């Protein structure tokens, strides 16, 4: 693995990340261009990826193969899933309907 750059989440170069995920480097660049992946960048413009990006690529691959989503639909679904996670986090993992049933 390469030297860590920038934040604690950026740990491998684009080439290493592509090899680790099995993505063709051009497809990886397309994901970045479309905003499906948002890597850190160094001053030279190099892309750096971390563990969170691995989970994101796995989610993208599941949505592409399982639902056959195109890139536009992927962006919408990924955005919605991210918003759901943020809302759940803001609620502290509690869901109001479930909590009312449990008597909280």
Explain what this protein looks like in three dimensions.
This protein is mainly α and 104 residues long. The protein has one domain (12-102): Orthogonal Bundle (Multidrug-efflux Transporter Regulator, Chain: A, Domain 2). The protein has five helices and three strands; from the N terminus they run βααββααα. Strands 1-3-2 form a three-stranded antiparallel sheet. The radius of gyration is 17 Å and the shape is globular. The protein starts with 11 loop residues before the first strand and ends with a helix. The mean pLDDT is 85.
Question: Looking at the chains present, what oligomeric state does this protein adopt?
Answer: single chain
Give the count of structural domains.
Answer: 1
Strand order across the largest sheet: 1-3-2
Helix content: 55-70%
Number of strands: 3
Question: What tags apply to this protein structure?
Answer:
104 residues; mainly alpha; Multidrug-efflux Transporter Regulator, Chain: A, Domain 2; three-stranded antiparallel sheet; 3 strands; DNA-bd_dom_put_sf; MerR family transcriptional regulator
């Amino acid at each position: 693995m390469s030297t860590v750059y920038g934040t604690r989440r950026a740990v491998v170069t684009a080439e290493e990340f592509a090899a680790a995920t099995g993505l063709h480097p051009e497809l990886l660049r397309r994901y970045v261009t479309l905003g499906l992946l948002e890597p850190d960048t160094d001053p030279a413009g190099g892309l750096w990826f971390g563990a969170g990006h691995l989970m994101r690529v796995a989610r993208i691959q599941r949505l592409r193969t399982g639902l056959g989503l195109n890139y536009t639909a992927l962006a919408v679904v990924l955005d919605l899933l991210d918003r759901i996670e943020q809302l759940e986090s803001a609620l502290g993992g509690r869901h109001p309907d479930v909590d009312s049933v449990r008597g909280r």
